[in-house]
Amino acid sequence: MASTSNSTSSKIITLRSSDGEVFEVEESVALESNLIRRMMEDDCANNIIPLPNVTAPIFYLVIEHCKKHAEMKDNKEKKKELRSQGEELLKSDPHTYSNLMEAVNYLDIKSLMDLTAQWLADFLKGKSPRLIRELLKIKNDFTPEEEAEILERNRWAFD
Amino acid sequence: MKKKQGGQSSQQGSVDSILNLPEDVMRYILALMPIRDAVRTSILSKEWRYKWVTITDVVFNGKCLMAQSPSSSAASNDVVFNKDILIAQRASSSTYEAETACAHVVDQLVSQLIGPIFKFSCMFFSILSSHHIDRWIMFLSRNHGNEIKEFRLAIDIKVSLNNRGKMHWYNVPCSIFYYKELRRLELLNCILDLPPKFKGFHNLSVLYLAACISADDIERLISECPLLEWLKFIAFEFYQCLNIHAPNLRYLELDGEFRDISIKSSPVLTNVSLNSDIPPSMWNAHGSPCTSIQFIGYLHGVERLALAETFLQYLCIDIVPKKLSATLDHLKYLEVDIELNSTEILAILCILRSSPNLEQLKIKYCVDDEGTGEGLLEEEDDLSGEQVELYGVKTQFDSFLCHLHAVEVEITGLAMLLDLQFIRWILSNAPALKTIKIYTNVYVEAETVSRILKELLQSRRASPQAEIIYLGVLGHHEVSY
Q1: Which of these, B117, B81, B76, B136, lies nearest to A150 by C-alpha position?
Q2: Do B18 and A120 touch (CB under 8 A)?
Q3: Can you give the CATH number for the domain in which A81 is found?
Q4: Judged by CB atoms within 8 Å, which residues 340-399 of B form the interface with A?
Q5: pTM of the full predicted structure?
Q6: Residue in A51, A143, A46, A50 with CA at minimum distance from that of residue B49
Q7: Does the CB of B25 have a partner CB in chain A at under 8 Å?
Q8: Which of A103, B144, B300, B316 could form a cystine bridge with B117, CB 3.0-4.6 A?
Q9: Min CA distance, B301 vs chain A (Å)?
């Protein structure tokens, strides 16, 4: 049970992931999601809110990062730390990253959208194409001729 | 949060999973990267080949074209791209070739984009002739004139200097004034002529100009932007009078020579910064009395006010009144640069007397090269009657410093006796003062610093909790005295 004793006064929202798992989340956290906010405004508040596009492990990650994000608000150090965590996740598990990114997009959580998008932007920045391919499991399907043509087209970017 | 079932562990795919991200998410991510890195994704795979061409922001600065970014060389494991391909700019021998290569990059890039362009930003190219910029502005007018929201252009001043050493500014084509959807416009180091048919920027909220523009044109430009919230104007010419009509203005920063400034109906204006790096003595012959001090009196809602460089001297050209025409009830933060010392203090006092709720005061002493000499110490002899009263024993203080809790003093050059007296006067008159923070620059000797601190520590304090903190040399905090 993650809802802590000091926040017992806040309302609890019940959500169900696509794989049938049920989550109880504090209202303040759940309302970070514009999708859930809209659903609640449409009066689903007393029922279990279904999230057909999000699996339990990914939803767990989303909640975790929502909480971290709330904690770091005015803390530069924590902000930096959170921003740097993307590198690790993208290196070890790009699949989970893209699931997380998709869930954040679906749930429409602005703060996490900024964070997770920045993760990939930072990750791609300054890495050689070969390294990016290797880490993200991208298959280079260009012929050498095609590759040369692309390099020629935007030479300045590949120096 | 309660977890009632065990979840499946995420499957690690063996294929490129990033590719499945929705298109708008991908565009959003690419927009967060420098344009060079976005273009580089085209080499990853066929699927990635044209992802970047949907970007809507074209952001270049001189540096990103001219040199390899240090991060890319550090992280690069890929020999192919470093060994064999020579960048055109680097290989070129003449400035002309380098310039052409640079311009070519921008041309090539925009020709590959397939979507709308919302943002075009070209900052500080060091070697670009105006016809290239003309071409881009025309291109944007023709193809993206109804959608572009942000346009930023900064010409390097070095380019603006022609070979005779005379300033030669870039003349901005008037088609830019027909970008109807602009939210933000920045034009630095240009000449601007407003076309007679200019209909206004109805959505513009940010305007930053460093330009040669006539008084009529700048006034008309500002008044034709009804939603303008943020205005910074660095004027290259002398203005007898600048009338600002901007009902939604929140932030105003003016830099240059303005004999008079008048502002009508800006009820939400809260942040004002006025700078000038030319002492008024250089144009004192312009006749009619200066109304700058009255102007400050009109800023009823201002919360933060900064008077930088020599601007304070403008306030002192005529007789400084004891109080402003109105009370600045909302002023919480005041920042002033003091250059010549004594008379400027009268202007500060005038503002202080009119700002009953001031909480923070920052004073920066900027002493120019001549000012650093011993001579300034003698200024004490020229004190007016009011100053004598101010520094004297019989200082009469009303309630005007009662909310002041933080003072910052930045001392550059020699710390003068008179300055110290002003700070001592604040110490002995501000009952709620918590801190006085002091910085110095590298030219202030350790001996002087310890003398200042000693004198201040011995001064009488109206607030028992007032602390004097020396924060060392500005920008060199590792140096401690």
Answers
A1: B81
A2: yes
A3: 3.30.710.10
A4: none
A5: 0.80
A6: A143
A7: yes
A8: B144
A9: 28
